[in-house]
Design a protein that fits this description.
GO terms for molecular function: DNA-binding transcription factor activity; transcription cis-regulatory region binding. By secondary structure, the protein is of the alpha/beta class. The protein folds into three domains: about 45 residues, 434 Repressor (Amino-terminal Domain) (Orthogonal Bundle); about 130 residues, Rossmann fold, CATH 3.40.50.2300; about 130 residues, Response regulator (Rossmann fold, 3-Layer(aba) Sandwich). Helix 1 packs across helix 2 and helix 10 crosses helix 11. The longest helix is centred in the first third of the chain and has 17 residues. It is elongated and about 85 Å long. The model has no long low-confidence stretch (mean pLDDT about 90).
Amino acid sequence: MATMKDVANLAKVSTSTVSHVINNDRYVSPTVREKVELAINQLNYTPCAIARSLKSNKTYTIGMLVTTSNNPFFSEVVQGVERSCYELGYNLILCSTEGDPKRMLNSIEHLLQKRVDGLLVMCTESHSSLQQIFTRYPKLPIVMVDWTPLMDMCDIIQDNSYYGAIIATQYLIEKNYKDIACITGPLNNTQAQLRLQGYRKAMHDANLIIHNGYEVQGDFQFASGIVAMQYLLELARPPKAVFCSNDAMAIGVYQALYQHGLEAGKDIAIVGYDDIEIAQYMTPPLTTIHQPKKELGKLAIEMLLHRFHNPKEPLHKLSLKPILIERLSA
């Protein structure tokens, strides 16, 4: 296997000149650069990634920690992260927590042992011992995506869930619905809490009663939407409209309605949250709150790279503005 010294000998230049050409970190005249590049091609030389990382103290690798979920929201965000990494010349190591706090901590340790340049964290679970890990690596750039258990320790990019839930509920109110229920996410999750608070705020401002049983906790997964809607339909006073805290649960609601011979948009109004790709293909298409998921991934990478180059800046918190997408389910 050819070495940098072999390239230098063939091009009749110093090894430092070869290094400057490869890393593009200092001016090299076009003539000399051409000689070096020709020698690299002739010898089929590939720079050693380990040697480069030891010299530059960078591995050009980003770690990302996500929860295991059948919710397409996560995969659509990850797709945006992967594309941005590719365009910027970074590798991505993706680790799944399987919903297990112990596995989450082990995955973080694994990523840190790989000497990742930075870390993206996007999980649904919350675990206090994460703070112990981050305290041990205070200089590691970390961005939390749509998850905020450690707001004062790292940069954060998130959806404005409180406002999004308000506009979703207000939309139903403006459609003259009064008996409006809410299927929440797991209430140990910050975004689920904020969406519930937004629903309550809109109902309160409209002087509408939240009837007993109208707040049902789900877990952001498809099946919990079925269970929650079945419960709501069995109430003495079933709701006429339902705000679902994410689209996955809303799709579960569609299934529960089908099982009872009912139809979203006709018998009961449904509004979701996230605007996952499949939402527009449902029957009827799902009215929902749009989150720019691929853009969210792109912005997370940009925020992480900004932290690479500006480690002493104050922590940043970026909140994206949710938008109502009106379709036919409400």
